[in-house]
Amino acid sequence: xxxxxxxxxxxxxxxxxxxxxxxxxxxxxxxxxxxxxxxxxxxxxxxxxxxxxxxxxxxxxxxxxxxxxxxxxxxxxxxxxxxxxxxxxxxxxxxxxxxxxxxxxxxxxxxxxxxxxxxxxxxxxxxxxxxxxxxxxxxxxxxxxxxxxxxxxxxxxxxxxxxxxxxxxxx
Length: 171
What we know:
This protein is mainly α. Helices cover 59% and strands 2% of the residues. A hairpin with a 2-residue loop joins strand 1 (165-166) and strand 2 (169-170). The longest helix is centred in the last third of the chain and has 27 residues, at 134-160. The protein is globular, with a radius of gyration of 18 Å.
């Protein structure tokens, strides 16, 4: 089974058309068999104004659940491309993944509302997070790698169609 195309989700909700797709459309990138559509169908898509406020968060949560299951069945440490990506992107990737883990830990609160030791990036607190949350940090690095791979594939496709991309803007 391959992952469902992005358009299956996108066509149901205009608010989920963002860059955080988190999987490659129509390819067997992830070596596993699981009924992903069942998970996607658990999200009840409705078109009521009071419901649309939470729809984007529910979609994001469902996507992350799917991706976590995929991640749990892989071993990124054995993937040379992943190792190269994390090495090449070390200037920003560590800070970003730490931010994502802390944001999850504190119930999606903004960083200004975190305890001072984390908000002020005290070294002892960050070292503690690196030990306690190693798997989650790797998960977020893996997600960024997947987004990078997807964007590179999209860029190659665009170039074949003579569409130039500067950064992430096509023209």
